[in-house]
Each structure stands twice: as C-alpha cells, then as structure tokens.
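writing this on my phone so excuse typos. first protein, seq and then structure
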Amino acid sequence: MNESEQIAQLKNENEQLKQQLLQAQKLTALGELVSTTTHEFNNVLMTIINYSKIGLRHTDQPTRDKSFQKILTAGERAARITNSVLGMARNRTDRFEATDLQQIVDETLVLLEREMSKYRISVERDFSPVPSVLANGNQIQQVLLNLMINARQAMSHGGLLLIRISHESNSAHVDLTVRDNGTGIPREELPKIFNSFYTTKNGPDESGKGGTGLGLAACREIVESHRGRIRVESTPGKGTAFIIRLPVVQEAKPVVLPVGMPVVSNETVQE
C-alpha cells in the first residue's frame, strides 16, 4: 500500500470513528431523555397509588375528597407528560420541518417540572412572537434537556432558570437562550466545553445524570446539523448562558409571470 492509499484509508477510518462518536453522543442524549421521562411517570404513579391507599383506608369525606383531588392533579400531570412524549413520537426521523420552539420548550419543561421543583429551581419564560424554525423537534428537545439539566446541576442551592426565545424582524434566525445564575464556568475552560469527553464534573450526580462529557458535544453536533450555531457566555459565580441560533422557515415567494405568458394548468379538460 503506497502513501496516498494509506492517507485515504486513515481519512476513511477517521470519518467512520467520527460517525460512531456522533451516534454515541445522540444515544447518550436520548438515554437521558428516556431516563427523565420514566422518572417523571414513576413520580406520578407513586402519587396516585399512595393517595388511593389513603382514600381506601379513611371513610371520612374530607380525607377522601383530598385524596381524589391529589389523584386528579396527578392524572392531569400524567396527561401533560403523555402529550410531551407523543410530541416526540410525532417526529422520529431525521426530517427537518417547520417547528414551534415555544411548544418544544413547554413540552420539555413538563418533563423536568418535578426535578426543578425538587432542587428549588424557579423557571422564568421570556417568549417573544417568533416565526417557526426549520428543525427536527426531537433533536432540539434533546439539546434543551441537556442544557436545562446542566443548568440545574450548576445551581446546587437553588436558583433561577431563564428560557428566552427572541427574533429580530430583519433576521433569518431565531435565538433560544438557556440561562442560569449558578456557579459559572472558568474562562480557561470555555474553549473546551464542546469537546467530546471533556467535562467539568466528577461523574453523574445523585440523579444519575451527566458527567460523561458527551452532552455538550452532542448539542453542538445537533445544532450545527441544523445549520445553526451554539455559543456560551459565562461568569464564575454569576452564571452561564447558552445561546442557540436556528434558521427560520423560509416562505416560498410567488413567481410573477411576464405579461402574455400562458399559465399551465394541471386540470384535465373533459371532452
């Protein structure tokens, strides 16, 4: 094998390894998504089971009414989680289509509602009217889950998570910002955080999430596959913001035919 053939082989092997790594990144993000959804369903089921037992044990009406109300609230939450899961199921391919970012954010927050409450994280939404973006909803939801879980982990004593969607009238992109007021990232580490297997954590937290060094690398791969960009701003002790920029759906412009040019019709003429 001559030198040029060896170089070609190495390039091919490198590309194969890159694709395998990308698949591993996507599977890691998907695994956290499944883990989060399962955990949330388990919380709902435990609430329903426990209050059903209370209602069966007590015969007084006030206790039963309270139990029924708790069961109803849990059932309504289960319905919201189901709708979020169905939203993910509607787009299981790699197809890009017109996507409502606000709906994706709302569905993602439903899956993390209990987790944010447990760790004393307040969530603030700042949504401006924006056009639809050209995206794969499942993949953007994976990115959001990763960034929101990272933000929660950065605020170990509670804090504020801000989700902002904005768009400038003359821009062909929509900005999605995930901001926390947690520990922040040291300046010298910022250039490395999107590298595969690089992490600032010492492994998964008590919930079993994070620490692999694949999350942010997968986020960047997904966003760039959308012809978008992701960047980070951070100040140690004050917090971190990830800004995702995604392309808007371009509307087809009507074609103006020159005067006198015949219009071709698809209708069949019946004789």
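second protein below, same order as before
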Amino acid sequence: MESLAYLHTALTYESDEPAPELRPLSDWFPTASSAAWLSAQVLAAALVVSAAGSAMAATGTVQTNGNPLNVRSTPGGPVVSSLPNGARVELTGRKNGNYLELANGTWVSADWVAVGGTSPTQPPSGTDRAVGFVNTAGEPLNVRSAPGGAIVGTLPNGTRVELTGRSSSGFLERTNSTWIDARYVTYSQSPTPSPNPTPNPGTGTGSGTTTSFVRTNGSPLNVRNAPGGAVVGTVANGSRVELTGRRSGEWAQRTNGTWVSSNWLTNSPGTP
C-alpha cells in the first residue's frame, strides 16, 4: 500500500498537465441572477409538458339513441358526413366548446361520444330527452340543420322523433343534431294541446281541417306561397280545396302549405 501511494504521488508531481480549476456558477449561467433564470427554464419546460398532455390523442365511441352522429367541418359548422351509433373514433384531444376534434380534422358533439370507456357528456340540467310525434295537418314536417336554418329533409306526419330536450327560437333538437318546429310536435307523455284554429268557411273534415270550394267569376283562383305572397299556381273555379284552419287576414292556408284568398271560397259547390 505504501508503495502504491508513493507511486501515485510521484506521478502527480511529475505530470506536465495543469492542475484542474474550479469555475464559479456565474460562468455556467448567463446572468448573475442564475436562480431566477433556472426557475424560468423549469417553468417553461413544465408548460410544454402540460400543453402536450392536454391535447393527447384518445379513442372514443359514438353512443346515441340509435341515430347517426353528425360530423361537422368546424365546431358547430356545416354537416359534412355522419357516423353510425357504436362507431369507434380517433380523437386529437382538442376540444372547442362542446365539440371534439377527430383525427381527420372534422368535429363531433361531445354529448354523443364516450371517451376512454366513460359515458358521453349528458345535456345540461333541465334538458331531459323525450319522445315526440310529428303532428301536422297531414303535410310533411321540415327538418333543418339549425333553428330556422336550411332544410335538410322532411318527416311524414305521425313520425316518432327522438329529442334531446334542447330548444331554441321555437325549434326542438333531435338526437341526430337536426331541428324541427316545436309547433308541430306533440309528446306521448304530455301532449301539447293544439290551439283552436280561426273559423274558416267550409265543412269540417276532422283533425282541424275544413273543406271549401272555389267560387269566382269564372277565373282561376291564385295560389300563393304565403299570405299575400308570390303566386305559385292557380285553382280552377269550382275546385274543392282542403284547408288547415289557419288564417292570416283574408288568407286561408291549404293542407299543402300554400295560401288562397278566403274571399273566393264558399261552403258548398253550388251557386251561393
């Protein structure tokens, strides 16, 4: 042991290399306030990690009441396609309002997607789902992309509809994210009474409709798209017309949604 110690000491003193120097911390960090600089770097790294974690990709499953789920180009934007109930979806982890981004850049409602084995987000309190039935005068009910928006389809009278419980501007949302006019929907559990229509000349035919006959001076009667609106057709003198019972001034609505002047209608086909 003594010989090894002696040999180490001799090598140390005989080496031509300069002795190592201890450098102060200020040489390693850019400013004198090295502690503050180091804290800032640690905080920045933590924010990067946090941001990456908040937008991690995930897998979800479409869970509706059986209807397809609308896929939109942007959050709340135009519908570009749909996904069947039960479909597996790849998510980016990004969320905007109540919409989730799919891996292909499109968006779906978070209300109908179960992420990571959890149940889909339920609609807010006070918006319980319900079942309703289309109740018109026999005409199909328009289906819209948004409350009062573009018509994307129709539903026959009497059709059963699944509703989310949400309403906006007199329209009800269906579980496939389309909207229908609340005035033409009744509920099996608590039917909404229909308002009494303004009496209209003619003979009752049930369900609030009436039958009248065109009686002019021989000329055809103009048919309009709205009370006093554009002429979209004519009805020959003496023709039988079915009316919904709805009135707007002198105008009476037909069961096909068009309007005619009640000044040229009578109760019977004979001469008044």
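The longest helix spans residues 34-54. thats all i got for now
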